[in-house]
Amino acid sequence: MAESAELKQMVMSLRVSELQVLLGYAGRNKHGRKHELLTKALHLLKAGCSPAVQMKIKELYRRRFPTKMVSPVDLALPVVHSASSLPTGLAQLGFDGHSSPSPLLPVSLLGPKHELSLPHLSSALHPVHPDVKLQRLPFYDVLDELIKPTSLGENKIIDKLDYKLQQDF
């Protein structure tokens, strides 16, 4: 009983798009306003849904409200389909529209061997200064730092560009 109340609370906190995904996954009509979708999803729970649907509810809830920082161990890897298991005509496409031998994965999931082989920006391009801090704001969560904050100090390239622009006008 406690789990059904927990699932009900999870469903009630989902957004419209997540409710549509859930109802589509359960094979129900996914069209309507939020209160209609919520009613359909709660009716699905009351009627008794399969464990797969319960797992989908938990997955959608966890995606919406992560409990902690996601580490590579906690991250559930997406199912990788080989080209032979895909229906004919479907292939995994790269950025340029051509087939790629493997799906694109985040750098952190490739492992340290592959991380080193990827081209990185030189640290000389972006000097790191410890005095620069980003201010926390209530409308976003910082998950990770991609590039360390830098000071807006002297930048000779920008200075030259500004000088050229001033000469043109």
Written overview of the protein:
By secondary structure, this protein is mostly helical. It has seven helices and no strands. The chain has a domain of 63 residues: SAP domain (Transcription Termination Factor Rho, Rna-binding Domain, Chain A, Domain 1, Orthogonal Bundle), CATH 1.10.720.30. About 31% of the residues have low confidence. This is SAP domain-containing protein. One of its GO terms (molecular function) is SUMO ligase activity.
Q: Which percent band covers the strand fraction? A: under 5%
Unreliable stretches covering 5 or more consecutive residues: 73-124
Count of extended strands: 0
Radius of gyration over all CA atoms, rounded? 24 Å
Helix residue percentage: 40-55%
Q: Give the CATH level 1 class of the domain at 2-64.
A: Mainly Alpha
In N-to-C order, the SSE pattern is HHHHHHH
CATH architecture of the domain at 2-64: Orthogonal Bundle
What's the shape?
elongated
On the 0-100 scale, what is the average pLDDT? 69
Largest sheet properties: none
- Gap between N and C termini: 74 Å
Q: CATH topology of the domain at 2-64, anyone?
A: Transcription Termination Factor Rho, Rna-binding Domain, Chain A, Domain 1
Number of helices: 7
In CATH, the homologous superfamily of the domain at 2-64 goes by the name: SAP domain
Task: Give the helix/strand class.
Answer: mainly alpha
Organism: Fundulus heteroclitus (Killifish)
GO cellular component, one term: chromatin
InterPro entries: PINIT_sf (IPR038654), SAP_dom (IPR003034), SAP_dom_sf (IPR036361)
Domain SAP: 11-45
